[in-house]
Every structure is written in C-alpha cells, then in structure tokens.
Amino acid sequence: MKLSKKQSLTEEFYSSIGKLFYAVAASDKVVRVEEIRTLKELVKEKWVPVDNATDEYGTDEAYKIEIAFDWLQENDPEAAWAFNEFEEYKKEHQKAFTPEINQLIWETADAIAASFSGKNKSELIMLSKLKILLTN
User: Fold this and answer.
1) Which of 5, 53, 61, 104 is most exposed, with minimal Cβ within 10 Å?
2) Domains of the chain in sequence order
3) Which phi-psi region, left, alpha or beta, contains residue 54 (left: φ > 0; alpha: ψ -120 to 50)?
C-alpha cells in the first residue's frame, strides 16, 4: 500500500503510532521481548512499504515508530498517557487515518498484544479502546 506524495506521512505521525503501540505493549505494566520483536518485524514488513518518506539521513520515516517506542520503554510512562497522546494526535490529524492505515494500526496493535501468551485483560481493554477510536 503506497501513498501519494501529498499524503506522505510525517515523523510526528509515526511517533504517535509508536506511542500507541507502546501503550498496547505496556498496558499490563510489562513490555516483553516478544512484543518488541513483533513490533520490529511489523514495522519492517508492513509499515516501511506504506510510503516513501525518509529523513535527512535516508532512513525510512516508519522507523520513527520504533524510535518512539524504544524511548518510551526507556522512560516508562503510563500506558494510558501514551494512548491519550495518540488519541489527541488522531483527533487533530483525521485525514492521515485512512481506512487502510486504520486497518494496519489495528493489525499491528492486535499482533503486539497477542505476541506473548495471548491477550491479557489489560491488553483487551486497550484494544477495545483502540477499536472504538479507529471506528470514529
């Protein structure tokens, strides 16, 4: 799925997506190695091909998802804070959230939650909040 140049996604967009995926992974207070591995695989396989945007060093902007995720993991904010940050960004930038992007967000978040021995209650709650947000 490629976007047209005028729809190119920004560093801020990818950072907000990283916050969301951190929120899903950290919703049970523990970010597991399997969740990180799933995130990195999906960024490479699914997010990098989305558009051609690169930063000044030629790095695909989609890797900003991982950078934001890693930074949050190191600084350990509440999962709810990270989710709220994503929610605010989404409200202010609705046009970036096409049905295809929303589907990719959902598939990635769902895979992260399922990557370590299935989904637990806190992850299910976070996913249900995400589902509502993506359909509105």
Assistant:
1) 5
2) 9-135 (1.10.3680)
3) beta
